[in-house]
Amino acid sequence: MLLKYKFKNFCSFKGEAEFSMRATEDERVNFPENYVEGSPDVLKSAIIVGENAGGKSNFIKSLQYLKKFFKTNQNVESQLEYVNDDYTKTECPLNREDTVQEFSLEVLIDKTIYSYNLWVDILGIKYEKLATLKSGDKTFLPIFTVERTKEENNLQEIIEKKLDDIPISKLYFSVQLNPVYNQLKNFLQTPATQNDSIGLYLSKIALLNVPEAVTFSNWINNTLCFEFAPYSGYELTKERQSNSEILKIISDSRFLEILKIIDSSITEIKPDNRYPYQNTVMVRQNSDGQSFGRELQSDSAGLKDYFRWAIQIFKVVYENKVLFADEMDRSLNPVLADKIISFIHGNDHHGQFIFTTHNVLHLNLSRQMKEQIYFVTKDLSTLHSELYSLADFPDIDYDSDINLYEFYLRGVLGGTIIG
Prior knowledge:
Elements: E1 2-8, E2 17-20, E3 35-36, E4 42-43, E5 45-50, H1 56-72, E6 101-109, E7 112-121, E8 124-134, E9 141-151, H2 155-161, E10 170-177, H3 185-188, E11 192-193, H4 201-207, H5 211-223, E12 224-228, H6 233-240, H7 244-250, H8 253-259, E13 266-270, E14 281-285, E15 291-295, H9 301-319, E16 322-326, H10 334-345, E17 352-357, E18 373-378, E19 385-389, H11 404-409
Parallel strand pairs: 5-17, 5-18, 12-16, 16-17
Antiparallel strand pairs: 1-2, 1-6, 3-4, 6-7, 7-8, 8-9, 9-10, 10-11, 13-14, 14-15, 18-19
Helix pairs in contact: 4-5, 8-9
């Protein structure tokens, strides 16, 4: 499960942004279904509220961007379109080329906390580290630490000359390994050029069967998931129609339980192996006991959108996935969105559901802990985004008569543009 994520210098985020899924408030005794009890206690869900173009999607994309380095094993380097644009100070994007993007994750896997850090610039990796903290231990045990010690081409000189193409540079790294794996050090410390596909050191170490690296890589690749609001039903179907994983899920009887949240008259699902997003049949039964079927492509727009989200909810509850969903309730009404959260909280699992929303009705302390509510707001003078939690407002307590969504709409909590 995700414990903490921090990042810096990504798109509209310039300063460090921190997001936590640790359940630490005393009030958690009143929300026993909202978190998984353990060491530490971990939240099952979180909501991120903010105005349009405030940075909510950038927050999710930053983590997706980090995952890409694990998935493709391609060159690890900053891409200028994702480096923070400080519009108010410079019009020259080359001044961004010496910017270091920083990413940090803490993850709980089988009672062990994994801490991972990655710093990158346009030449590649500047710093990378993996450490673990086993249950009962007091300090993290480093598995490996990599730091770039020098590069043949001076980065500042590249910037000053305003070169269109960065010349090939030989990069030198210092590698520190846990003594158990010291025999790998010479292999990993070889200088490399930018032509050598300098992937993550964690991926290299995982290929050498270092168990901590293998476990963490598997979590990133297989447990961490993303879902964005649909851009087009046709494109979505075209993109996913051959996914055998989807067929396995919609054939599971538990998936029907999730569909019934939106329509209790659905009694059976008949998956179509070739076009599951088009020709799968929803069988309904009316109050007279008569049954009839309808292909998904001919069903209501609401059900078609929910069908896609139901697959993701299944992954969270029954496969323990950690899902970041962007604008889930763009196509779902507030009541249904609340039912989805209640379903996730009401089941025993180790998955997590984090989603962005414009729906102020989610700002409700009778159903959510303060730690589960985050805001993203953009400073109109700098155009920089900021991420913070409702838990950062000590004056707001659970027993007060404060109307949170009224406070939000008035701009008291940030996250909305007040003209």
